[in-house]
């Protein structure tokens, strides 16, 4: 290297440093970016939309209250289409962008694939409502603000066997990780509440016509039905059960949670009870504020579990950034782990594994609306696994 | 008794498959195209019907507009998508068709939103029963519609001059043309009828589920492809039989082996088994 090239080299290096420094300075004045992925297209686009609205509301509320250290917050949104194979590329993009924290507003498929990648890069990652148990087991940078399927399944068993006192039960399970986890929890806790599971049926997520299943359930003549599934399965299922003259209580879970279920099932929805995360009749100021501001920001829309859970997850992320700053990921992780606050889904904190600890809200359909039915606040029954 | 109910439910589902699959097999018979976008037209029929029914309060009006409108849309798909690429190898049309189907699904989502549409007043929800055996009004109508419309189609093909021209075009287009058959007209009518049948199936499914979603065509899109293969590609009677057989097998399968295989897996297992024994399909075209 002769002298001239050496000087050129040094100059180039210095200007690169100066430019880099300039960009860093810009970033400190620009908005704080939080990664957020959800299924905005494809089969899960309805939940993806609710998730996005919930997250955007959390950001808008935080920005109205001054943002983080005077800086505005922005979501960096990616559509993962609900596809597992999108999880890793989405994670790598966010890691490349160096966002301080990432929220998943998606299903278990992409979230489960992305979680180990985030943990490996020490990027705090919060799953809003994906329920697969392996998600938080990916490592201690991964958290979840909704119930694991098993936990909610156990709550369902208490609701059916103890609170409603129904013992002969047919279980109808949507055949994916969501339904299987719920059914596992329900079956695990069933003996404790004296429940005799007469039969378990399975259906696929694309199913809307349940004629054969309904005919068979009718012949079983159970005292109650515990059915998992999403609103687009549950709406037709409940309508078809009632249409065939099956009039026993139907107990669902958070997959039903939304006004669309009631629209689809129509009058047949009346009296259906679910275990979920959002209490519409809550007196908790944080929940009341969430419901009013959500419905003000989105005229014509009704809050649902997905929007509430995603709102909660996004708020957990924002609060942690406020406490721990934007640069030290380990500190941000600790701040999330130490979360202890009232959120739209009730009072929450995390256990050692990063699983949420909170009460289960039971809602019932009355006069075409989701209403308060009861609360299950039993820390032993609802204890998520510690490892 | 349960077995009888399962058979009835199977026939109801089979009727829906038949309305959908017959159109598909007609297109295949005429142009050797696997018309995946058929399922996109199906969804279009449901959307038009639900929007008009909710605006006017009449499901009948919704159906009366949706069926011919989707028929015309089917003709447009032929003219704008398939006709320009008919001289290419068949997979070109297949890829174009899959592409159009994806575009249609996402367009429905963008225009009508991801949550789906429901009827503001439920139609045909009452239960018709003979003794303990019964079905919903919409389910009964599904069977009646399938048999009625497909009988009409058979009469059209067998008893009319146009039907003769149609069948001639299917069996040998060049020969038909040399006898003065307007084969282009046959293609348009073919797409009109096929798409209209799909729309009528979609409207009945929409009423039955009280839900019209952007993705409601995705399961029928591949399942009806399996059905027309089973039926012997291009064979209308075979497709009809395969539809009903698949409906009944799924109905029993969901109840008795549903814990092992889901409904779609049962359908495809049946397809695999049949093709292992009869590679030409249950009923070969020739």
Helix-strand blueprint:
The complex is a heterodimer of chains A (387) and B (286).
Chain A: H1 3-29, E1 32-38, H2 45-64, E2 73-79, H3 87-97, E3 102-104, H4 108-120, E4 125-127, H5 134-137, E5 142-144, H6 149-163, E6 168-174, H7 177-189, E7 196-203, H8 211-220, E8 224-227, H9 231-243, E9 250-253, H10 259-265, E10 273-276, H11 285-297, H12 305-324, H13 329-337, E11 340-343, E12 346-350, E13 356-357, E14 360-366, E15 369-376
Parallel strand pairs in A: 1-2, 1-3, 3-4, 4-5, 6-7, 6-8, 8-9, 9-10
Antiparallel strand pairs in A: 10-14, 11-12, 12-13, 14-15
Chain B: H1 2-31, H2 38-56, H3 59-82, H4 90-112, E1 127-130, E2 133-136, H5 137-159, H6 161-171, H7 173-178, H8 183-209, H9 218-230, H10 236-256, H11 263-277
Antiparallel strand pairs in B: 1-2
Helix pairs in contact in B: 1-5, 1-8, 1-9, 1-10, 2-3, 2-4, 2-8, 3-8, 5-6, 5-8, 6-8, 9-10, 9-11, 10-11
């Amino acid at each position: 290297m002769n002298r001239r090239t050496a000087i050129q080299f040094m100059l180039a290096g210095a200007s690169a440093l100066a430019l880099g420094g300039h960009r860093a300075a810009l970033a400190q004045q620009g908005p704080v970016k939080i990664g957020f992925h959800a299924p905005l297209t494809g089969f899960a686009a309805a939940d993806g939309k609710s998730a996005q609205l919930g997250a955007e509301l959390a950001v808008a509320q935080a920005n109205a209250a001054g943002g983080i250290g005077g800086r505005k917050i922005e979501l960096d949104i990616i559509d993962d289409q609900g596809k597992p194979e999108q999880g890793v590329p989405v994670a790598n993009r966010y890691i490349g962008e160096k966002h301080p924290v990432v929220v998943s507003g998606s299903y278990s498929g992409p979230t489960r694939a992305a979680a180990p990648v985030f943990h490996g890069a020490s990027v705090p990652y919060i799953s809003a409502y994906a329920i697969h148990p392996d998600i938080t087991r990916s490592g201690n940078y991964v958290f979840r603000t909704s119930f694991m399927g098993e936990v909610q399944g156990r709550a369902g068993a208490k609701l059916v066997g103890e609170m409603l006192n129904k013992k002969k039960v047919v279980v109808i399970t949507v055949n994916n990780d969501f339904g299987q986890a719920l059914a596992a929890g329900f079956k695990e806790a069933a003996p404790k509440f004296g429940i005799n599971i007469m039969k378990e049926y399975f259906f696929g997520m694309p199913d809307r016509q349940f004629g054969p299943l309904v005919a068979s359930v009718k012949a079983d003549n159970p005292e109650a039905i515990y059915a998992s599934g999403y609103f687009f399965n549950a709406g037709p299922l409940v309508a078809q059960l009632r249409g065939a003259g099956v009039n026993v209580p139907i107990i669902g879970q958070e997959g039903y949670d939304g006004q669309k279920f009631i629209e689809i099932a129509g009058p047949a929805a009346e009296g259906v009870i679910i275990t979920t995360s959002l209490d519409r009749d809550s007196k908790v100021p944080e929940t009341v504020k969430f419901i009013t501001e959500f419905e003000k920001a989105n005229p014509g829309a009704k809050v649902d579990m997905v929007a509430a859970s995603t709102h909660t997850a996004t708020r957990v992320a924002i609060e942690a950034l406020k406490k721990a700053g934007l640069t030290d990921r380990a500190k941000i992780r600790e701040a999330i782990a130490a979360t202890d606050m009232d959120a739209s889904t009730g009072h929450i904190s995390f256990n050692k594994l990063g699983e949420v600890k909170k009460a289960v809200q039971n809602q019932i359909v009355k006069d075409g609306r989701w209403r308060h039915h009861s609360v299950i606040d039993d820390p032993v029954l609802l204890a998520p696994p510690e490892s | 008794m349960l077995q009888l109910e399962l058979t009835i439910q199977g026939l109801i589902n089979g009727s829906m498959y038949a309305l959908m699959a017959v159109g598909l097999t007609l297109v295949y018979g005429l142009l050797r195209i696997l018309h995946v976008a058929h399922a996109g037209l199906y969804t279009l029929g449901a959307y038009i019907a639900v929007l008009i029914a909710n605006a006017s309060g009449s499901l009948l009006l919704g159906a009366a507009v949706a069926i011919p409108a989707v028929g015309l849309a089917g003709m447009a798909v032929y003219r704008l998508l398939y006709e320009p690429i008919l001289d290419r190898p068949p997979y070109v049309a297949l890829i174009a068709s899959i592409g159009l189907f994806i575009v249609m699904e996402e367009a429905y989502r963008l225009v009508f939103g991801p949550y789906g549409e429901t009827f503001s007043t439920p139609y045909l929800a009452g239960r018709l029963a003979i003794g303990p055996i019964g079905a919903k009004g919409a389910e009964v109508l599904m069977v009646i519609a399938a048999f009625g419309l497909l009988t009409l189609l058979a009469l059209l093909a067998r008893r009319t001059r146009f039907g003769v021209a149609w069948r001639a075009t299917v069996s040998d287009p060049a020969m038909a043309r040399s006898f003065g058959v307007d084969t282009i007209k046959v293609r348009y009518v073919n797409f009109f009828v096929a798409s209209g049948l799909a729309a009528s199936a979609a409207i009945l499914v929409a009423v039955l589920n009280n839900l019209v979603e952007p993705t409601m065509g995705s399961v029928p899109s591949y399942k009806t492809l399996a059905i027309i293969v089973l039926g012997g590609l291009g064979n209308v009677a075979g497709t009809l039989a395969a539809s009903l057989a698949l409906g009944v097998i799924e109905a029993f399968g969901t109840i008795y082996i549903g814990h092992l295989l889901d409904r779609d897996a049962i359908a495809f297992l049946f397809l695999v088994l049949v093709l292992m024994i009869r590679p030409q399909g249950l009923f070969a075209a020739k």
